[in-house]
Amino acid sequence: MKVCVTGAGGMVGRAMVEWCTGQGDEVAAHTHQSLDIADAGAVNAALQGMRPDVLINCAAWTDVDGCETDHEGAYAVNALAVETMAANCRRIGASFVTISTDYVFDGSKQGFYTQRDDPNPLSVYGDAKLEGERRAQAASARTIVVRTGWIFGAGGRNFLSRVIELAERGERLQAISDAYGTPTYAPDLAMRLRELAVCDVPGVYHVTNSGAGASYEEFARAALAASGRETVVIESVSLRDLRRPAPRPQNSRLKCLVSEAMNLAPLPDWRNALKDFALRIHQ
Hints:
globular; 6-stranded parallel beta sheet
């Protein structure tokens, strides 16, 4: 399979390139430096040059607070660029897989969000990502939207991926005790993204690791336990106390209604995935 991966310099993009290469795919890996997805001409040239079977878009502007103060930038990358990629895929007969977010939901629901739940984003970031979903689906019928969240893995800049690193450096750890999500391990996400590309069944999918989900504090404590650092002190804080520029959903746990019907096995429990991550970063 010929696979084009955008955002190949990011955490999910690197995992995606590694997994596809390991499966024997011909992979064109584009970082932001080699391909700016907001440059429509560059996107067209890249896809016309390779003519891949599938474009897997792992590129996005994920600075939630930054998006809140730069509406134009947020929509340019997370909505308009996604539409452009989908439209170019339609022209060359390729399928299009793009990553969306759990932040398309407002967090007021108890339990898991499924595809039956209506999105209602609280932030500019969430709204731009939802707009990207809709624009891509309108631009190409062969669009697969994958909503995910709480991603952790090697090279991540977010709290989830840096818990062990921060503990090793002796830095003070604060973790939110009253916001909940479903952790997702980047290599497991990459595997599922390729599976969906092979299935080539358009639609919206929710992809996370198995388990009941967790709060940030629960995840942090599990990460420290997996790395043998149970004694590290974590200060519990409330989501409201942090007073961030952009609002976040208090509950963004995801569950997929269609994966099982497509014979796609559940991804490993997030606690087991976390143990694998802890082992990898200490090799």
